[in-house]
């Protein structure tokens, strides 16, 4: 991972303003700002974590756990997915359907009453750091969460926790430096560059590792799958 000092040095080389009295503070704040903006737009792989929570019979809510990821806040920013299975096995893991809290409150208004009917969990909503089921659960369950965290402020000796954003961070740092001295044309150019680099990083992070995206013509595609056109024409005369 690239350290904050190394990224800041690259910004200084491009702007020639590293001797300015507030240069370090301005650029450090720019890095933290950009990392948060980028993470609000996309859940980068480095920000994802999988945790398990035990749910007791009769529970209607549970608290989101604190997540420890180097370079990220411990608070859950986004619940990406959530699944459930009976505690100790006995059934297939199945997804829970996430709904807005206002929907859950309207559809199941009596779920928190002491005499509420216990049910298998099907729906779940988030309110702050608390997850709410549609009713008290009918037995113990294991809930598995995939969550995303927002980056924490980079420490003085820390590194960028999302390496694919290195180039975009430098460009954004350059933008902020030029903007602070009202070099408008240079600032706008580097802002556009940082957004383009962010888009590239997001696309790269979104690609599945086993996928090769390639557009091919019909003839090449047929040869690639080792189809024999003569055999096909024998089976399908109209081919």
Characterization of the model:
By secondary structure, this protein is of the alpha+beta class. The chain has two domains: 7-43 and 162-206, no CATH class; 47-150, no CATH class. It has seven helices and eight strands. The protein has a four-stranded antiparallel β-sheet with strand order 1-8-3-4. It has a four-stranded mixed β-sheet with strand order 2-7-6-5, with no helix packed on it. A hairpin with a 7-residue loop joins strand 3 and strand 4. It is elongated, with a radius of gyration of 25 Å. The N and C termini lie far apart (55 Å). 26% of the residues are buried.
* Quaternary assembly: single chain
Taken in chain order, the helices and strands follow as: HHEEEEEHEEEHHHH
- In angstroms, what separates the terminal alpha carbons? 55 Å
Number of domains: 2
Low-confidence stretches: 213-227
Residues in helices, as a percent range: 25-40%
- Overall 3D shape: elongated
Q: Kindly state the mean pLDDT as a whole number?
A: 88
Strand content: 15-25%
Structural class: alpha+beta
The count of β-strands is: 8
- Please outline the major beta sheet: 4 strands, antiparallel
Strand numbers in spatial order across the main sheet: 1-8-3-4
Radius of gyration: 25 Å
Summed up, the helix count is 7
